[in-house]
Amino acid sequence: MVKLNAQDASFLMLESAGAPMHIGFLLTFKQPGNAPADYMQKLHAKLSRFAVDVEPFNLRLAHKEGLAKLKPEWEVADPVDLEYHLRHEALPWPGGERELGLAISRLHSEPLERSRPLWECTLIEGLHGGRFALYMKIHHALADGVGLMQQLTQVLAESPRGTSLPPWSAPIVTVPGTKPTQSGDEDWRRFFEGLFADLGKPKRERKNESRLPRGPRCLLNGSTTGRRRFATQDIELGRVKALAKAADATVNDAVLAICSGALRRYLAEFDRIPADPLLASIPVALPREPGQTIGNSVAGVHASIATHLEDPRERMTAICAATREAKEEFNRLPTAMNRAINSLGMLAMMAMPKRENTDPDKATFTNLTISNVPGPKQKLYFHGAEMDGMYPVSVLAGDHRVNITVLGYHEHLHFGIIGCPDTLPSVQKLAMLLPPALLELEQAFGLARAPRRARAVAAR
């Protein structure tokens, strides 16, 4: 038995019919040039022969009754029925981005069966241009986005002839988090040194004196159903890096500014642009505990994305200042405290009923989540097929109706947007507004270039 920590358990408790708590990735591939007509059937048969014998894919929730359910535990499922977890589908003609997007929207809307290990993998053939896709979803209680991405990346090969293994049968390789590793004692020592050093000093004036983040009320917040709509967009990483350099910003800041511009245009068309700036939740990866190979190791910050500012240069400047302040506040706290705050925040969202907010001016917490997951820089292959896209598929938390997650792969940033189509109109429109938002910023910082046609998104 493996006990779930508070952070992992909160994702189980947060789950409801209107809020499925699984995350996923959509990987797209080009079939090898010499692929036979039955390439997909052979690939499915090959994957079916591997045993499910590594964590977290061989774990399921232990059955408990009464109050014991409040302390969930994982147990090893032996054997695992791979025929249930590994599926094979084909897209209807013409197999375009629309058909793929609708398939992923349907698959991501379906909850995972709790009596089995909480994951599924679907091979999808029939994508135009001799391509296919692999969609994997897993419960957030078992993995966070960074952990799942690292596991998927480790099973891919760096050349067409390299060896590829399915993630449920590949040896686990632990990768440290992004924050410099140091002892818990050192964390707390720095915290108390800073705390005592601030005693007697005048408090800094802050624009938002409330310790509870509250974004402005708008279409992005409110009740949701369990249905999900998925849309994608690709942007050249080189363009975003050039923008960040010109603005003396980070790539993360540039991504937030692009999302901010797209959200302004979207809200102007479907709702209104709030007078106050939208507030974004931004996940931050934490170092994993010694020996931790499953579950979550993440905290979060919240920052204004300056959607109230019309001028794109001013918007970028304000975003840089907001994220810098958020990072300083985050780095002041020990890792253990950041982890605890995140767990308490998740439980607070669970306690808030999924109904319309009674405050006419404010969202329950933040307006949406915007996440940037670092991905592989080199081209990767799966059984000889070159991967040409890697899109994150995330969750909706609290009263959020949309989530934007970005992943860098090779020379592109791949945006995965998940929304609730029953309460948020035209999720794909938001994806289509990302390239114009980038162009607007480029023009503002003297990087103007001829407009280009945006790649079709994966849901319409």
Strand fraction equals: 15-25%
Total strands: 15
Structural class: alpha+beta
How far the N terminus sits from the C terminus, by CA atoms, comes to: 44 Å
- Main pleated-sheet profile: 6 strands, mixed
Report the total helices: 12
How would you sum up the global shape? globular
Helix content range of the residues, please?
A: 25-40%
Please, what is the average pLDDT? 86
Low-pLDDT sequence parts: 176-199, 203-210
Could you spell the SSE succession in H and E letters?
EHEHEEHEHEEHHEHHEEHHEEEEEHH
Radius of gyration: 22 Å
- Spatial order of the strands forming the largest sheet: 5-6-7-2-13-12
Name the descriptors.
single chain, 460 residues, alpha+beta, six-stranded mixed beta sheet, 12 helices, 15 strands, 32% helix, globular
Secondary structure topology:
Layout: E1 2-3, H1 6-14, E2 22-30, H2 39-48, E3 59-61, E4 73-76, H3 82-85, E5 86-90, H4 97-109, E6 119-127, E7 131-139, H5 145-154, H6 184-198, E8 229-236, H7 237-246, H8 251-270, E9 279-285, E10 298-304, H9 312-332, H10 335-351, E11 368-373, E12 381-382, E13 385-393, E14 402-409, E15 412-419, H11 427-432, H12 434-444
Parallel strand pairs: 5-6, 9-11, 11-14
Antiparallel strand pairs: 1-4, 2-7, 2-13, 3-4, 6-7, 8-15, 9-10, 12-13, 14-15
